[in-house]
Specification:
The protein is an alpha/beta fold and about 325 residues long. The protein is about 40% helix and about 10% strand.
Length: about 325
Amino acid sequence: MNVRRRHMSGIAIAAATALGLGTLSACSDSAAAANTDKFDVVASFYPLQYLAEQIGGSHVHVTSLTRPGQEPHDLEISAQQTAALGESDAVLYLKNLQPAVDDAVSQSEVKTKIDAASLTTLEKHGNEVGGHAATHDTSKNEELAGLDPHIWLDPVRYAQVAEGVGKSFEKADPKNAADYRTRTAALVKKLDALDTEFKTGLAGTKTKVFITTHAAFGYLAERYGLTEEAINGLDPESEPSAERVKNLEKMAKADGVTTVFYETLVSDKTAKTIAADASLRTDVLDPIEGITAKSRGTDYFSVQRANLKALQTALGSK
């Protein structure tokens, strides 16, 4: 499944830069990312911005290419952002999640390029992910294709990325290496504790199957012995086939599914339609691609705990 929907080609970026054409900036202060008296880091979207801020502390100046509330897959890079990227000390991104960012990074001369995807292991995921045998699902999962980028939703993989980012900061900004090392260790400790919360909180649920709008929670499902059945594949805006909807309704009845989860940055129309047809509830399961006023929390950890509570309610926590 190809998430490359709308993006600016490398040629277009170069042309826009040469002509000084500014499109709407995805982050109002992205131009301020460069040339500060701190270690200037450009992050591609919220989960990586959060890592950079937590690890860097007062030593870093972090800006995000993706503004709050913007669906990150849809990001287009402005000429202003491209210029700021080239003048920054480091860029932190997740290859294959945002094609426009990949294009800009590949052309940029920024010295430190940190690809979060290279700091942990990625897997191929489709509509159905986890331990469920999918015996009630006769579809062929045609949307199964490339590697699933949603690694930050698994606290263990996110901790691995944090460790890699910390080491990269130490190398790129050695005078503050000790602080980066200390802050990374503290963040990893918090993520280890979150992993324990999920492991304990989801251990005794009545069912292990949950339905989401798109396959963002495959790593989380595998980590805690659950099964994610996604209405769509890795693309949050693709439309499910009639066969897929029919199979989901059949599976929901057979496996005791109570809830269809939707997310904050994508339309809930399909989720609510399927839920109504199958007499199921709807609730939010947040992929934490950005923090907005609609988020059930103010940062990664608080939203993850809200996700845990939502899963416990939907799965019938004992």
